[in-house]
Write a structure and sequence with these properties.
Blueprint (H helix, E strand, L loop, with lengths): L14 H5 L5 E5 L5 E5 L9 H4 L2 H7 L7 E7 L2 H6 L5 H11 L3 E7 L6 E6 L21 H10 L4 E5 L1 H11 L6 E6 L7 H15 L3 E8 L8 E6 L4 E5 L4 H7 L22 E5 L17 E5 L2 H8 L5 E6 L1 H5 L15 H11 L1 H8 L4 H26 L1
Parallel strand pairs: 4-6, 6-7, 7-11
Antiparallel strand pairs: 1-2, 3-12, 3-13, 4-5, 8-9, 9-10, 11-12
Helix pairs in contact: 9-13, 12-13
Length: about 400
Amino acid sequence: MIRITDSGACTGCGACRALCPREAITMRRDENGFFYPEVNLDLCAGCSLCERSCPVDAARAHPTPAAPRAYAVQNADTDTRERSSSGGVFALLASAVLDAGGVVFGAAFSVDHRAVRHIAVRQKSELFRLLGSKYVQSETGDAYRQTKNFLEEGTPVLFGGTPCQVAGLYAYLKKEYPQLTTYDVVCHGVPSPLLWEKYLAFREECAGAPARRVSFRDKKYGWRRYSLVIEFTNGKVYRKRHLLDPFMRAFLKNVTLRSSCFSCAFKGGKSGADLTLADFWGAENFASVPDDDSGTSLVLTHSEKGAELFSRVFPDARVREVNVAKALSHNGAFEHSADLPREREEFLSLARERGVETAARRFFPVSFSEKCRSAALDTRVGTMLQKRRQKRKR
């Protein structure tokens, strides 16, 4: 029987639930909305398969993998790149797998946008659901079991998620499948699903209508100055740059992250993923990488399988190999966990009671001068980007 003696270790990946032969484990939300396994003792047979298979213990005992190769990537299709969080490489990888008759697993919003869950996509027409970052911890649900079913049928699978979710998949599968390719993302940490649910409800109340689309990484003001955008069914639109929006501000201050994110066991490529995808922060420091502030992806290849799939995107992308150490020097979250803020517990308590916007205003107020500087810069950057996009389309 799995016992959570340290909530700071459990990632909520769901591998234990998927592994349980008697379905005695349910993932339950704690007071902050994070999922933890709960055991039904009436069903538990005491086999300890769940504890023996926990990917956290395996990762901490596993040596650091060999250094990967690193690449800067930009999707040649400008529209797809605009809709993507960074350079649009995921869409190319996923399309290659779908073209081969495969299936792609990734994180998607629920219909009401208040939750994020892993789903399977088999058609390119549905791929849009997996595009873009979702700064909410995804529920893996039955994705591990579904992945195994497809693999047993001989279907190619691309599975992606946070490093702990990819490690959870491997803990569940317990053997290699030649048809499986995995990718993880360079993860800052996963925010509370409950706080996102409450924050979206607040925005819907302000707009007087339900949300119909959410983008955490809108590029109207550029890739680096991305915005949270919420479109509502009555036509209203909420748009706020990431440094000014309360939810994003709290996320970047680390106060909404899961406890395990402050001592992540899967940093440095320890998830076992074939590929790692990330924003290529610092791309402007590489002379070989064209930078128009529309987004550049960083791709790390960890295995021959990952490199083979990645090679299939070359005809439809601008790809440049870069020095891995230099690239990772600007992307510290690949190797380092988030710092634990001393005000986290107090912030979470206030956010649960009175909302994220109230807690953020108290702990991380935006100064008047910061608002003015941001508005002035948004105007200049927006005009510049509009001219650049018009020039590209000619």
